[in-house]
Structures are given as C-alpha cells and as structure tokens.
C-alpha cells in the first residue's frame, strides 16, 4: 500500500512538472515607456486576459521601454526573427510592408480611435487591405485618435505652415505637409519628437493628445491646433510559427481576445485617454489650444485634399478602398 501511494504521488508530481513545462511564456515587446497608457493599461490588460483564458498554458509578459529592442522601426523585424513573440507596431515606420494600413493616415478621414479601429479591422476581414499580413498572426489593427497640429509657434491657417520644418510619422502626412509649403521631416520616431523640437530641428509635429503626453511633446510645444490631420495606424502582431506551436487552449485564448473585439476595446480606451489628456492640458493652462471654426476647417481640408487624391491615384482600387473605409466608419 505504501508503495502504491508513493507511486501515485510520483505520478502526480510528474504530471505537475509536465503541465508546467507545457506553459509558454510569450514575450510582448513595446517600445513605449512602461508608464505609457497603451502599454500600462491596454497591452497589459490584454496580456492578463490571454494568460487567464489560457488556464496557464500561455503566459504573456510585457517587455516595455525597448527592453528587447529600443527602436520602434525594428519591432516588426524582432517578431519575424523571434526576438519578440508579440510586438506593438507602427506600420508607418515600416513603409511598404502593410500599405493598406495607410488609408487610416489620411487627413479628415478618421473621426475617433474606436471608429477608425473598427473600420480598419472590418476592411482587413474583407481582404481589402494590401500587405504582408499572411506572414504574421495579426492580433489587432487600430488607429489612434485624430492627430492635431502641435507646434512651438502658433499655427492657425495652412499658410502659416509655409517654410516650417514639420514632422509626421507617415508618407501620406508628409505629402500633406509638403503641399502646404512646409518642409516634411520623416524618420523621427515618437520618442525622439520632443528632443527634436527642443533642439530646433523641427517646428512641430502631427500627434494626438495621448502621444503628446506619452512622449513628453507637451513639454516642448506651446500651441495645439485641433484639426484632424489623419491618424497613426497601429498594429499588434505575433510570430506566426510561435502561435501555431501553441496548445489549442492557448491559441483559443489569443483568438478570443483579438480581432474585432480588441479593435473596439482598444478604440474605446484610447478615446477616453485622449480626452482625459486634453482635459488635463486645458486645466494646466500652459498651452494655447485652438479649436478651429468651420471656415478654418474648410481651409485645412482643402489644403490637405491633394494628399488624399495622390493616395487614391497611386493605390490599386484606391477610390473603392477609400470609400469603403469611410462607409465602414459610418455604418456603426
């Protein structure tokens, strides 16, 4: 009887070791600081939901602040190489890889992060977005809230941009900057914007309120003009082989927390945070915040329209994609 009990105990211990060994630790890379809203709240929340739903068969750990790799432009390659299993991606930093995502960059198109994110995912599910999506497990596609014009000197009308060095994160917005007579500056990722402004390398940047806070740009500018200068399309992608090697339960946990549901949750959280950052900036009273009237908005819309027309002309089925994206946002 004692031998039988010892045998049963040994088998139970062995089973426990086997279960523990089967668990997969998934490395989620974010170039944002650990305290940044998306990383601290949205991505960490997603990681916990997946970990809990997997019943311990997968454990998602956030590596923030460039722990696995500091450059935002290298995050996608890190996933491809297996340095990170999952990563937060800004497609604009990897031009040509996901060209379909650029529809979210167009000025005067996206009305909110939730609307833009839900519409982008719907377009992806319909197969209307061009890009190397099949090379990765796509966890989520999103847009930021509409970006504003953040600058050292006051900018009210498009003509005030003439001659300024202005930064944007995407080719489409760089085209808009050039069309307004400013000097388009690319290649400066979010974490470097505040320093570039402080050193006088650029006069301003297109960013939404959340990014203005996360990357401390609010400390470097004095004016914000609230015209909807497009968005930053965003992604979370996973190494495809890593995903396919997971247990069925772990894969189901990821699937249940990805896609359309994640687009909605992300967008809602982003919009709430964006509004909160703006409210704090108003309360602090250190910035001149200008909300344009209808005539000013019309002037900016006219000034940025050539960038949309150029995008439509150079994109296969561009008009159909653009129209479908607008329709997807109004269908909600």
Automatic annotation (TrEMBL):
CDD domains: PBP2_TRAP_Dctp3_4
Record keywords, A-Z: Periplasm, Signal
Signal peptide: 1-21
A Pfam match: DctP
GO BP, sorted A to Z: transmembrane transport
Cellular-component GO terms for this entry: periplasmic space
Intracellular or extracellular location(s): Periplasm
PANTHER family: BLL6794 PROTEIN, PTHR33376
Protein name per its UniProtKB record: TRAP-type C4-dicarboxylate transport system, substrate-binding protein
């Amino acid at each position: 009887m004692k031998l039988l009990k010892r045998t049963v105990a040994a088998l139970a211990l062995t089973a426990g070791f086997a279960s523990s060994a089967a668990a997969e630790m998934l490395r989620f890379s974010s170039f944002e600081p650990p305290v940044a809203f998306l990383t601290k709240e949205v991505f960490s929340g997603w990681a916990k939901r997946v970990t809990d739903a997997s019943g311990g068969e997968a454990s998602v750990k956030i590596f923030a602040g460039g722990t696995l790799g500091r450059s935002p432009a290298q995050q996608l390659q890190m996933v491809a190489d297996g340095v990170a299993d999952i990563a937060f991606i800004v497609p604009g930093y990897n031009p040509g890889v996901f060209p379909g995502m650029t529809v979210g960059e167009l000025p005067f198109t996206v009305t909110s992060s939730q609307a833009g994110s839900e519409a982008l995912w719907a377009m992806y599910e319909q197969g209307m977005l061009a890009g190397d999506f099949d090379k990765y497990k796509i966890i989520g596609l999103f847009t930021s809230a509409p970006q504003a014009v953040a600058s050292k000197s006051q900018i009210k009308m498009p003509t005030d941009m003439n001659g300024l060095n202005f930064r944007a994160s995407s080719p489409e917005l760089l085209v808009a900057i050039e069309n307004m007579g400013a000097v388009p500056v690319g290649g400066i990722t979010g974490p470097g914007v505040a320093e570039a402004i402080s050193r006088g390398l650029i006069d301003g940047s297109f960013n939404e309120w959340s990014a203005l806070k996360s990357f401390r740009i609010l400390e470097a500018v004095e004016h914000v003009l609230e015209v909807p200068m497009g968005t930053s399309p965003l992604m979370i992608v996973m190494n495809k082989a890593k995903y396919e090697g997971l247990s069925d339960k772990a894969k189901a946990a990821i699937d249940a927390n990805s896609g359309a549901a994640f687009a909605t949750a992300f967008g809602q959280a982003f919009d709430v945070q964006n509004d909160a950052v703006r409210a704090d900036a108003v309360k602090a009273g250190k910035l001149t915040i200008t909300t344009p009237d209808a005539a000013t908005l019309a002037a900016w819309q006219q000034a940025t329209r050539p960038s949309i027309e150029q995008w439509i002309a150079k994109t296969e089925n561009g008009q159909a994609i653009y129209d479908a994206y607008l329709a997807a946002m109004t269908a909600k």
